[in-house]
Amino acid sequence: xxxxxxxxxxxxxxxxxxxxxxxxxxxxxxxxxxxxxxxxxxxxxxxxxxxxxxxxxxxxxxxxxxxxxxxxxxxxxxxxxxxxxxxxxxxxxxxxxxxxxxxxxxxxxxxxxxxxxxxxxxxxxxxxxxxxxxxxxxxxxxxxxxxxxxxxxxxxx
Amino acid sequence: xxxxxxxxxxxxxxxxxxxxxxxxxxxxxxxxxxxxxxxxxxxxxxxxxxxxxxxxxxxxxxxxxxxxxxxxxxxxxxxxxxxxxxxxxxxxxxxxxxxxxxxxxxxxxxxxxxxxxxxxxxxxxxxxxxxxxxxxxxxxxxxxxxxxxxxxxxxxxxxxxxxxxxxxxxxxxxxxxxxxxxxxxxxxxxxxxxxxxxxxxxxxxxxxxxxxxxxxxxxxxxxxxxxxxxxxxxxxxxxxxxxxxxxxxxxxxxxxxxxxxxxxxxxxxxxxxxxxxxxxxxxxxxxxxxxxxxxxxxxxxxxxxxxxxxxxxxxxxxxxxxxxxxxxxxxxxxxxxxxxxxxxxxxxxxxxxxxxxxxxxxxxxxxxxxxxxxxxxxxxxxxxxxxxxxxxxxxxxxxxxxxxxxxxxxxxxxxxxxxxxxxxxxxxxxxxxxxxxxxxxxxxxxxxxxxxxxxxxxxxxxxxxxxxxxxxxxxxxxxxxxxxxxxxxxxxxxxxxxxxxxxxxxxxxxxxxxxxxxxxxxxxxxxxxxxxxxxxxxxxxxxxxxxxxxxxxxxxxxxxxxxxxxxxxxxxxxxxxxxxxxxxxxxxxxxxxxxxxxxxxxxxxxxxxxxxxxxxxxxxxxxxxxxxxxxxxxxxxxxxxxxxxxxxxxxxxxxxxxxxxxxxxxxxxxxxxxxxxxxxxxxxxxxxxxxxxxxxxxxxxxxxxxxxxxxxxxxxxxxxxxxxxxxxxxxxxxxxxxxxxxx
Lengths: 157, 743
Description:
The structure holds two protein chains of two kinds. Chain A is mostly beta strands. Chain A has a single domain (5-152), classed as CATH 2.40.50.180. Chain A has helices at residues 59-62, 135-140, 142-145, 149-156, and strands at residues 5-12, 15-20, 24-29, 43-49, 52-58, 75-81, 84-90, 92-99, 119-125, 128-133. Chain B is α+β, with helices and mostly antiparallel strands. In chain B, helix 3 (59-76) packs parallel to helix 5 (116-125). The chains are: A mainly beta, B alpha+beta. The A-B interface holds A 32, 34-40, 43, 45-48, 50-55, 57, 82, 84, 86, 139, 144-147, 149-150, 152-153, 156-157 and B 205-206, 208-209, 212, 451, 499-502, 539-545, 547-551, 553-554, 556, 560-564, 574-576.
């Protein structure tokens, strides 16, 4: 009954994260991205992935991490979320690790702020702690889905 | 387990189709109860559902369908006839079966029994003999279908039986049943395959990708010197195009699919309103892309509801007006110049244009003096304005009377258009023009800063090129709104860069104004460059971006990059152009009073005024129409020349010296009709020479005469520029003083 969970690891702004591998479709490097005017701030733009239009999420922004990602070298983890594809922009891609379900613990109490709600749990890989992301809450975040136009519209008037 | 799931799935799909058929049959039978083929078809449909229920063990659903089957069985045998109570009960039964199917779809079980009230109602309609049969027998087909020998008078029963079962030659009814259904079903499955729409969409995507790759390959091949490669790529080119075309066809569905629910809908409407309506459906085979069909399904239903609710009169009214008591609702669909046209027309009361315009004035959509100038057709179009309703009473049939604006929005969103025609007392026709397919649309590719955008061609009227040097001169600002004078009209402008917050202007570069229409309103979109027109494949933006106010989707360009497709209607709303336009209209008159005197790039109407040989110029933006009338028509009112014009009185003003006498030999006079603050006025001129556009025109000598701005040179002739404002106010002032003298 008990099965190991495969997790795809990556890092953003020097911090380590993971997503369940079942959700991951592919990993792309330096994919061409088209800007979307008036897009939600967390959505960096659109990519063409073999004929599909896929939005690219600036994970650094959504996770409220400081700094800008170096435009030179961006990695895109394309995930399948509820039938639609979404690209997560990360700094570095890591290994795929297998974790026992009991190894995944709830996020520590000391982890505070907005990012906490995106965490499904914490798991260790060779002494380093990784945060397992919950894609549902991540993509439902206002930085991902709330159009920037709402706020700016009133400014225009 | 898997097998069983599949069987259950196909049971659900088939039952849904059967119910659709059954519904149509019941409604048709209500109108022509003797249609034996319909009875047979209805019976077959419910029989199939009931039979399969038994197979899956859905006993509750079986009980319900059994009751329906009994009633239809009795009709088949001529024991009963379809009338309104029967039809209503049966249709309620159909609805209840749908509830069951939904439950089965969700839970896999049929769950609770059908409401007892419904069952009782249905049982009450079953003739007692059959009911007894049904009560005592197990649900076997052979037993509940009555024996050929009946206690009823033999004559009518036999005839109807022959009607229903023409192939019956003494064999049992059950066998006939199978003979009737089986060949038809196999015949169908031989030539058609059921395909999941999701799969079709996926294939469409793949083909889109193939098209893209083909384009890239063709580009590459052109630069190579390889005959073999050229050959192969040409063949690939052709095959790809054919594949694309074929796949597009698989997405086409006949419009009949959208109409199939109408008979039922009409029956419900008739019941609620007490009106009688006969539907006439024409051109049901006309095919549309399925996404478009989905998109117009609700708008069409709305139009049908409207037609019955507001259009067609009650039978008493109709009789009083000498019309047949039963109204006719005609739906027709046909291909027309690359579009599909769908018409909904009724033979009802028609629209009251005066009432509409009154309502429009109340709602502040139109000013009284504007209203006077509108044609009947233009007045009726106000019915499409947001928040408009002519229904005197709020009705639950057509919602709160709002909605035609929503219909129009929905139709325009898919690149279509809607038009209305109405003849009072004779009826109303609504005409929808729908593109054949949504998936591929022609679009103009434009550039704004570093990005490309696609503008759907249906929204594009024209493109105006503005040189960098002229930008400041040609693009004016009125109360923070940008405007451009397009042939004497004020065109509100939207700067794409600032609207989309894309960053700073490119300094001193040529610009393009795209003249776009949305909601019958025109506006200009300022972009940096205009590229080609291309057929683009429209792709959705996905959940995360569905809130975006300006884009309808995205497409992939020849180089593999993504370009966004502008949703012109939403962009106009987002930019507030519609409101600006209204504001501008209100501002127009005072504004013109200040700035009217001789503008650059204005067009002029060159005329020869009465009684002089000199030339005069009238700003074309001030001209409504040109008319020629016979001098006989001139009448007098308060000592002034007037004519009857478009149902009103048009005062005439003579240009030139105040010599009012018309040369006796002249039978025709020419009139330049101009709008003023106090209604239209006709300027009488001797001759209309030409229309000139001259941005160098300048008044070189100021005038001494009232009503003349001054003189300049146009087309090499000295020309007087007419000061319309002064002329009118002088005229108006005179009239006022005459009025007050009279008092």
